[in-house]
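Progress narrative, Year 2. Work on 4-coumarate--coa ligase-like 6 from Nicotiana attenuata advanced from sequence curation to structure prediction during this period.
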Amino acid sequence: MNYENYDPCFPDQPVVDLYLPIWAKLPAFKSKPAFIWAEDGPIQSSFLTYEQLNSSVQCISSELLLSLRKNDTVLVLCSPGLELVEIIFGCQRAGLLAIPISPPHPSFSNENYHHFLRVVSQTKPKVAIASSDYIRHVNKYVASSSNKKLSEALQMLRWISTDDLKGTEMKIQLENVTCDGNTYNGCRTDDVYLIQYTSGATAIPKPVLVTAGSAAHNVRVARKAYDFGPNTVVVSWLPQYHDCGLMFLLLTIVSGATCVLTSPNAFVNRPRIWLELISEFKATCTPVPSFALPLVLKRGHVGTTETGTVNTISMLSLKNLIIVNEPIYNSCVEEFVEVFKPFGLNPLAISPSYGLAENGTFVSTSWRCNNGDNFWTFPTYNKLLPSARLDEDVDIEILVVNEETNELVEDGVEGEIWISSPSNAIGYLGHPSLTQQVFNARLKNKVGKCYVRTGDRGVVKGEQGFLYVTGRCSDIIKLSNGQEIHPHYLETAAYNSCPHLLRGGCLAAFMMSESEYRSIVIVAEVQSKGETESLFLKQICEGIRKGVMKEEGVEIGQVVFVKVGNVPKTTSGKIQRWLTKYKFVKSQMNVIMQMKFDNSGNVQSTVEKMMQINGGKETKKGKKMISVEEEEGMSFAPPLSASKTLLSSL
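Result:
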């Protein structure tokens, strides 16, 4: 591991938690903030130094082991914040298997509890950790609920409040916290310390088993790739429960860095908080999903504040603007760089990156330290930036394989991305056959190492081995002429046809089969702008069909406009096309207008609901008494009815 060390004076540790007591004992680090939590407006912050975090982690670990045994599973239901960080590291030091998930609202309304039920059923946790206030609301719900299945699941859990874990006055001397891996009683390298659920972008989220050793390897490789060290300052609003948001917690500790955190909701409600935190804390690194860049340009643009003062945004300190959530469009990043270059954003900082839960998180980045590469010199492929680069100096092997024959494809040919790495997770909990298929893939006529099948499509181009992540294998749309296209190209073309009415990042394209006729459907959310005339919406539908045909040469069979919030997404903002299709087929979407086209591109039929797009009361014209009228191939019919969701049966 010596090649990974940024400083040979501090040898690497087998698990991430063992770095913490080392930093906590060093005079230069013990009072240094490890994590800072920033609340929105005006920005107020609290922090944990390395010494405070280490002491708190030891306290939590000791408390947990009073009632639990090593390797027991613990469901962590804490809101984003410093407390969640302490609990995650406390579980690792106690040798427990943590399952951090976003806690469903304790009212359990709007059927927001299905993932929670799935997690409890699959992982069978010994306890659940939450705030005392959350537990009180849960007990109140159980006492009055008619939902027998949910109530039983909540009652079967043994609840531990975070107040109980941290409230006991335990006099723990830091010098008694051992740094010796031989006497360390926490998670060992081969112990599963985390169950990390996949995003759910292409299927129901699956529980990934991550060992403490593979997680440590993953963040050490990321530390080297991004040139992290004790002077690194990270700003992150990503969810702390899994993937990139969780990885940066571990990466901070391994690097002896400082990480400034805020909640995803704070960013969504006011995207400019991200820019303000970068400026205030002089961040050197910040991870951001690709969809967030246009959101910042649209809603978080630099201007005057509510009091009329001028924004003081500075991005001069940034060395890494890490862009995740492929595919990464060149035009999107180019516009962002152009707008923020006057505010100090260096094109050298643009760091497109690739990762997935089955490999811990991090796989690779196309960014390289001090070699002169920058955003302007990155080559593009079909409008996309490279997300990664093949590198012989890193022990993460990336291949592009024909997913049907399991043979390597030539450079320039698209195929499935396979990965072999010490960072690989060990499988899916409770899915032995799927684990064998995904985590133990082998090349045809080759013996030896196993690979993880990522389910991502990619292509390698150029002498520098740039990897372009082009989409997901399961999302590919096969056209009647035998060609294939990734749905994001159709969604982008559709959005570009009317960006002022449609919601960016809230479109889904998929193939539908009706009898012998197959057609492509585009479902798009319409911005909340009150009542919209039906004639205008019809023109937009036709404009989308023409725009996609012009830009991509693909015929669209149906265009469907739905209300805000109807296109399902993952917690990291990825479109769930599979779930969109299911909800559409099962008539579970609030449709505003639905227009079908025949093979010649002519309007075949239109289903319309005259209503307020912003969710207000329906107009008199659409008040449940819907007239049915047929004229010039158009029909007006009652709206699609709602029914139970897919997840209610899981």
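The domain at 477-608 is CATH 3.30.300.30 (GMP Synthetase; Chain A, domain 3). The radius of gyration is 26 Å.
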